[in-house]
Amino acid sequence: MQRSHVVLSCLLLAAMPVSSSAMENFQQVKNRYISSDAQLLDRQGVLLQTLRVDFKERKGEWVRLADISPAMQTALILTEDKRFYEHSGVDWSAVAAAAWANLWNTKTRGASTLTMQLAGLLEADLKRDGARRNLWQKLNQTVIAQALEREWRKDQILEAYLNMVPFRGELSGIHAMSRTLFEKHPSGLDQVEAAIAVSLIRAPNAAPAVVAERACRLLQEQKLPQYCLNLEGQIRIAFSRNSASYQSGLSRSDRQPGAALHLARQLLSEKERSVRSTLSAALQRYARDTLVHQLAALKDRNVEDGAVVVLDNASGDVLAWIGSSGALSDAREVDGVTALRQAGSTLKPFLYELALEKKLITAASLIDDSPLSINTGYGLYIPQNYDKHFKGVVSARTALASSLNIPAVKLLVDVQPEPFFQRLQALGLGLKETGGFYGYSLALGGADVSLLNLTNAYRTLANLGSYSGVRTRLDKPPSPVSKVLQPPAAFIVGDMLSDRQARAVTFGMENALAAKVWAAVKTGTSKDMRDNWCIGYTSRYTVGVWVGNASGAPMWDVSGVTGAAPVWQDIVRYLHRNDTPAQKRYRPAAPAGVEQAQISYSNQREAARKEWFMTGTTQTRIAVGNHAWGAPKILYPFAGEVMALDPDIPPANQRVKLRASVDTGFLVMDGEIISTPVKTKGKSEAEQSALWFPAPGKHKLSLLNEKGELLDQVAFEVRGAVLTPKKGAQRPQAVK
Length: 736
Hints:
about 20% strand, hydrolase, 23 helices, EC 2.4.99.28
């Protein structure tokens, strides 16, 4: 029966009419080809990320024949169709040889040309499902192959075949095969890789040894027998890549560190195969590289994760979205832009803004930064400054810019947690509990927030109280705008956050927050150094950076200034790199409802300056009550006090100001004199003080007069991580 089929086939082929009226042309086939990967493009159409969305088979992008290596084309023709450029769809010599071999039951390669194989890939009723094609399928395949040769060029046939042929497992087409097995573009395939690839076409699921044998025969035919050495080992490595790719569901480009994978997962799907996002490819790459560089520098500080988001102030467009440090992280799948982390001090600006709105304070108001205990009904809440160093009476401007905790908690006592909670919700922070649940710790960032929502809340400050959601794709309209903050209060908070002089109390004049353009910025560090933040805005952009560990493990001696702020500063510099000198000197214009006045303090506790006020709250001089000095005594620290070291402030700045009211005398710490005797007789306010580096442990501070007689003594304790001052740091010195 089999021999009669062969003879009948040859006779029918010569007699059958060939019609190509229903056949698709090359461009139609190319147009209906759909990759299994979707594409995320930047705002200019530049490819940012591919993401697999079709899991039935893995197909890459269509590759032009000119972009496929000559080694691959040569190997394919040698293996599958040596007379490809000579026949017209059917290799009659091969058909005759196959027929003769069948007559004598001799095993042969078969007579299917590349054109016939392409016909089998194009026509649904010709596709194999594990079984051999029957006689009529073979005849139809032959007819279509001849029609293809009349309508298509040879290069089009070869190009379509290479883009559609299955190679191994779920890999279909040369792009997916090359990227997965050899981790390179098809243009880069060498002779060994090409031999392996074409050996898979006949038996896609063959064992490595079988594939190696076939590939070696081809290499020998090409007079390259030396490349047969360790061929099986190379094949096993390639197959292991395919296995890993199949298990993860990610292509190689999906796994590249720093790509826009996390946003791609939000925007791409089987129905959304190509999305033009709001991202800027150049900025995305720069933000990624900057973050990775900073985290690499911090690798010995037990920190491996980070995230960056950049927003356009006017539109709310997300210009950069870096969800992970990529290869540096053991949790690269976690999106640090949307993950919830403890906010730390980053919520303070919104508390001060609300207090300004309610006219509870002005930027010039004095707040006592001294120990505080609050009866919450569940016990005493005793907040501490991060450096456990109380500054005494300071202005609201200094308290916010220098991130002092006690003044913030005192403000929340007046504002109350629930109204502050409602304000944070209106800013889109999406807190999970209630104001009563967080209590007064809400002033110090005791709530979990996402980097995206927090950065957008700061963008609301930049826009003087106008809130809108962010946008991640260009085909969606901007979110509606609502007024959440009062413009005068938002403006004053921004001015406070941009004040280097007010910030210097804690951070010094030169630090990573000092941008080369006008910028309002705030850092934050959560409990036990688990998270640190730097969020700030300029005239056109708002930049948010988070650094920490996705696992929640604490970092070692990393604060917002040393961890996240350098990344923030570099990105701000990049964003404004082309600004003119005039643009760099830009300061936001004051809105209606604010005015500026010269302010001074009666005891010169803070320097006289020009200050911004909401209309109706302007002051020109603030009187500070005199201290009733009385008998000589130690004013600070208090007897029995427990201090703690602050992870958010550089160690060199963590000095405690020891104070005593005395006409003349000196201070002694644990038996060592730490202040130079100063005579102040005749003055109404006499104070002896010294800056002291807080060493963990129990301490005793004594106040002595000129004769060495004890006037007062207190015992206290310092807790927290051991901080060592920098080499060459000055010893404590007297400050008057």
